[in-house]
């Protein structure tokens, strides 16, 4: 096999506008509401910028609120289907900390803050990342119904499975704001302005008849 | 927030030894057994090289058998907990094809060949990647029992959920060889030679008393 034909590296990079958006954000965000407000700002801008879907996530040090990394969904910008907001934020945090285990020896308690319950891929990414807390704006059918994205199958006991691995879950932090952003995103999709990049469109297919 | 403190890019790169290993591999691998044999070679070498766990995956064009990309678990080499073999192979294939959807218009049928049923994160990554076929050496408790890795919770209907999204599953391709590699890896772990990087060690914790 000709070695030159085989791709050897992949990656993703935050777009310039995320750094602009972060410029006026304090180094530390004291409460989960402060943290989620930043997530919502990034999620609401991401699809307007054409970088990906209406999703964002940040990793913070739970106690101090120091922002370690910020991610948005970069599927469209990076060309990588795995570059969901959670994977971006977790990977950037691990790059910064020089550790594949954000919960390893000497690490502070790291918290992932995200604007909905993660899809099945990102659920797994949370499990293996070393974060000890997951904070979500909400869960439920609104995301799939309003945006057309498929979240994949997750068991009823998804939160218990996280807890069993030492990851606590906090829900319903500024939930209404999350739903509002998904609704506006759905309107943009209907008007033909944005790409629902989810490859197989399974949610649409499964619910077309209902 | 000081923009210079925020990390802005992440990524992973195949180690040199993978390219060496691929040098004598034909451009096309005609059968699933040929494909799995390559996967087993890469998986068996990966942990000896210290790049990650005993896992590998390749993306091929199903009909011609043309190898599009090859991945190994790069958690240790990249410092990214998400850099499992499947994510590496899929991301490299998408980089090469310039497409976040390997099943999009104009694409051939892409197949992911991997040496066990994917963990919950990589299961989701398969769902969103656009591959139309998943070929696995095996599934079952051997992986967790022999290696100590946690695979996370997947529903009983995991294969049906893939099929519902247009992804067919083929199982039991050179299964015994996969189990043999996991066994050898487990022996190396017992002898203290390698790192089980799975962050929370949940499998060990959950089964310690059994």
Summary tags:
about 210 residues, alpha/beta, Cytidine Deaminase, domain 2, globular, disordered C terminus
What's the quick description here?
Chain A has helices spanning 16-22, 32-49, 75-78, 85-97, 120-129, 142-147, 158-163, 175-190, 202-207, and strands at 9-13, 56-61, 67-72, 110-114, 133-136, 168-170. By secondary structure, chain A is an alpha/beta fold.
Q: What is the string of helix and strand elements of chain A?
A: EHHEEHHEHEHHEHH
Average pLDDT figure of chain A: 92
Q: Describe the global form of chain A.
A: globular
Work out the oligomeric state of the chains in this entry: homodimer
Major β-sheet profile of chain A: 5 strands, mixed
Q: pLDDT under 50 segments of chain A (min length 5)?
A: 202-210
Strand order of the largest sheet of chain A: 3-2-4-5-6
Report on this structure.
Two copies of one chain form a homodimer. Chain A is built from nine helices and six strands; from the N terminus they run βααββααβαβααβαα. With 210 residues, the first copy, chain A, is α/β, with parallel strands linked by helices. In chain A, strands 3-2-4-5-6 form a five-stranded mixed β-sheet, with helices on both faces. Chain A is globular and about 45 Å long. The termini of chain A are far apart. Chains A and B meet through β1, β3, α3, α4 and α5 of A and β1, β3, α3, α4 and α5 of B.
